[in-house]
């Protein structure tokens, strides 16, 4: 796994300057490209939602993807994660082409997404929600789960998973909810649950679809802290959001989309001074 | 005292700290603590009711009725368990259960029947166990054929496809053209609309040499001598029927253990996730389509086996009326009554449906009719216009079959309204191979963060 490689990068960066994640990432040189999108296009009938989008997400970075409503952010997102098949263009994960693969195949390769509206499995407990996520569990085979001799291995693995799930819940500070049904959680807690669940899959790249939508300011802070913690551990994030401030303050690289195209790309400073971006967000103070 | 009001639906709610008022309450409370206790308590209540109903007709009637009720309860429980895997666990709305059962029974029949056309539709003459395995495999294969195109469809359209397949299977088996074609090509037959005779029940051979009445085996001699015609006076055939019930009981335990293990595992977790939100399971890297196909095939194989155990033991099968969609509907009612998603609920639902809703009204009606000393009015209008309650009751009890559907409908409406989760549908059935209520090696509240 190339994850270890990125972890080292992130840690060495951390040692130099702990105060600003933006500075820290700026000093890093990209060693591999976890996610690369080339000329991505998607048409729905006669409507072009995404029109030749290309960008890169660097290892261990927190990259923001912003744009006004209808800019094509969600469609781009869905094309990357396999929900839609792109009309044209390619998506590469760690240099390997994943264009047009099924969502589950893409997730198994380490690119996992969260949902804009949290999709917790409400009739399952928080712990069950988390234990669903890990890839390639022995007990996912029906025969292994049933046959007496083979089931012992499943039980052993389940115990490991339970422990990992507890640790992950502690990290997100929702361990007191472990045995509650996910349906009883508040909106913000559901977002935390989703993040925790994604983490359980051992992802390399996490695509966050407006993780802060509908989250109160206290929880928003908490979620952002967790994202920065995880980034420091070597996870790579692509962060879709339409709240400019959040992106400006947290992402070291920002991609601005407008009318299905990439309008600008760069640091927060670059974006702030970009004429075209100001025009696209006409009237909005950035 | 609450011997009648102890409906199973208030069992899970009984608080453990309530002090029992009487010996009966203590028994009830002890029984409701375990799943087996709950099933046995329900059976016990049904047995008491049935005994009271037929007490005056003598021991033979009582034991015979108990046998019928237990048989129906067990076969409905088996079918409900299989359907619960599809519907309760995975949310696959399969309304073609009858068809998959028919495939199981007919395949078993064709494999086991004698190749000699003189005895009716010819078969392959293979041993019964091979026939049963073949029946399950064929039902599972039909499940695959149904699942492959249908899984792309949304729940309700999937349901229509399964219903369609079930009817195609029934009408094909009914068709004499299909029978002729099979005889000409494979030298086997289905018997068309007349159906086919089922192989002898091996349980009979345990009691009687070659299944012939009058030549009991040592086991038969012992049982018949103790309880049968030369002992307590119970008809030997009823005793053999009870022998088969033991076999059904063993299969029920097998089904239950298998499904509990499937449900309480990472596999079961994916099933639950598919039921709730397919997109989530998909985006977490689970191959949803493959798992659906797998679970559909497993469920269909179990439906085939349930069909074999049920209709294969009845002497003769024919496509109509045995495998009409109403059978699927009954099994669904059993699952709904028990609470979808719960295996114990499915067993309870099967027993309660068969004894109380299916067989109960007919028996009670028949007994009531015998006590009414009045002629049955020829039509409904006559019964109403006579303004005579006795004659109305006579009409009602004589026409209990249609009224039974009214009762069934009322019960369903009541359940949907008051307890949509069924008897045990609100229970926590953890989808994990281990206990998730606690944490092994608890850190005692210590946190990393």
UniProtKB/TrEMBL annotation, chain A:
Q: Tell me the ranges covered by the ABC transporter domain, including all copies.
A: 35-284
A Gene Ontology molecular function term of the record = ATP hydrolysis activity
**Does the keyword ATP-binding belong to this entry?**
yes
One Gene Ontology term from the biological process aspect of the record: amino acid transport
Give an example GO cellular component term for this record: plasma membrane
Q: Where is the composition biased (Acidic residues)?
A: 1-17
Q: Which InterPro entries does the record match to this protein? A: AAA+_ATPase, ABC_AA/LPS_Transport, ABC_transporter-like_ATP-bd, ABC_transporter-like_CS, BCA_ABC_TP_C, P-loop_NTPase
Biological function:
Probable component of a branched-chain amino-acid transport system.
Sequence similarity: Belongs to the ABC transporter superfamily.
Q: What is this protein called?
A: Probable branched-chain amino acid transport ATP-binding protein LivG
Q: What species is given as this protein's source?
A: Halohasta litchfieldiae
What is the organism lineage in this UniProt record? Archaea, Methanobacteriati, Methanobacteriota, Stenosarchaea group, Halobacteria
UniProtKB/TrEMBL annotation, chain B:
Pfam families from the entry?
BPD_transp_2
Highest taxon of source:
Archaea
Q: What GO molecular functions are on record for this protein? A: branched-chain amino acid transmembrane transporter activity
Q: Mind telling me which InterPro entries this protein's record contains?
A: ABC_transp_permease, LivM-like
Organism, scientific name: Halohasta litchfieldiae
Q: Where are the transmembrane segments?
A: 36-56, 62-85, 92-112, 124-148, 239-259, 293-311, 331-358, 400-417
CDD domains (alphabetical): TM_PBP1_LivM_like (cd06581)
Q: How does it sit in the membrane?
A: Multi-pass membrane protein
Q: Where is this region: Disordered?
A: 1-22
> Which UniProt keyword terms apply here?
Cell membrane, Membrane, Transmembrane, Transmembrane helix
Name its cellular compartments: Cell membrane
Q: Which GO terms describe its cellular component?
A: plasma membrane
**What is the protein name for this chain?**
Amino acid/amide ABC transporter membrane protein 2, HAAT family
Q: What is its main location?
A: membrane
